[in-house]
Amino acid sequence: MKLLSVVAAMAASFAFVTGAFAVDVDPTLPAYKTTGSLSGQIKSVGSDTMGNLMTQWAEAFKALYPNVQIDVEAKGSATAPPALVEGASQIGPMSRAMEMGEIEAFTKKYSYPASSIPVAVDALAVYVNKAKPIECLTLAQVDQIFSKDHWNSSSLTDIRTWGASCKKD
Questions:
Q1: H or E element at residue 53
Q2: DSSP string, 55-86
Q3: φ, ψ for residue 41 (rounded to 5)?
Q4: How far apart are CA 110 and CA 12, in angstroms?
Q5: CB of 169 within 8 A of CB of 156?
Q6: pLDDT tens track, the chain, 169 positions
Q7: Following DSSP, what letter does each residue of 92-148 receive, concatenated?
C-alpha cells in the first residue's frame, strides 16, 4: 500500500514538472500538497528517448520526497513490458504503444490491463548536409527508408540509400 501511495504521489509530481507547458487544467482542483513522509523505492525501466524526461520527473519527485529512491533505466521501449511483468519495475515508459502480446502477458500476470498515460510526443527530424543535397524526398519515402523492410510500395524498390529514394512515388 505504501508503494501505491508513492506511485500516486509521483504521478502528482509530474504535473509539477510539466507546468511549463500549456495544459488546460480544471481551475477548481486544489494545488498539490505533499503527504507526510514517504519512503521506498520506485524503478522505471523503458524508453531511452524518455530517459531524460523520466530523470527530470524523478528529481522533481525527490525534491518533494527525499526518502524515496528512484532508479531510471533507459534501455529502450521493448524493455518496459518484460520489466513490468517480471515485477522488476513499477513504471515502464514507452515511446510506442504496447503490442498485443505485451498487453496479454501483463494482463495474464496481473489480471488487469496495464494503464497507459500519454505524457509526450516523439518526433523525428531528417537533416541533410548542404554539400550533399537531396533532390527529392517525400514523407512516404522517408517512412520507407526508416522502416524495417525498406520497400517502396509503389515501385517495389528496396530503398537502402538516399539515392534510391529519388524514384518518384
A1: helix 51-64
A2: HHHHHHHHHH-TTEEEEEEES-GGGHHHHHHH
A3: -135, 140
A4: 24
A5: no
A6: 444 444 444 444 444 444 445 678 899 999 889 988 899 999 999 999 999 999 999 999 999 999 999 999 999 999 999 999 999 999 999 999 999 999 999 999 999 999 999 988 877 788 888 887 777 777 777 777 777 766 656 655 666 666 665 655 4
A7: ---SSPPPHHHHHHHHHHHSSPPP--------------TTS--S---HHHHHHHHSS
Grid cell for residue 81:
513490458
Residue 137 to residue 169: CA distance in whole angstroms: 10
Query: In angstroms, rounded to a whole number, what is the distance separating the alpha carbons of residues 169 and 156?
Result: 10
Which strand (E) or helix (H) includes residue 152?
strand 151-152
Single-letter residue type at 71: D
Cβ neighbours of 158 (radius 10 Å): 12
CA 21 to chain centre: 17
Question: What H or E segment, with its residue span, contains residue 3?
Answer: helix 2-17
Q: Sign of the CA dihedral 25, 62, 33, 5?
A: positive
Q: Are 65 and 34 in contact (CB under 8 A)?
A: yes
Full set of structural domains in the chain with CATH: 2-21+37-110 (3.40.190.10), 124-169 (no CATH)
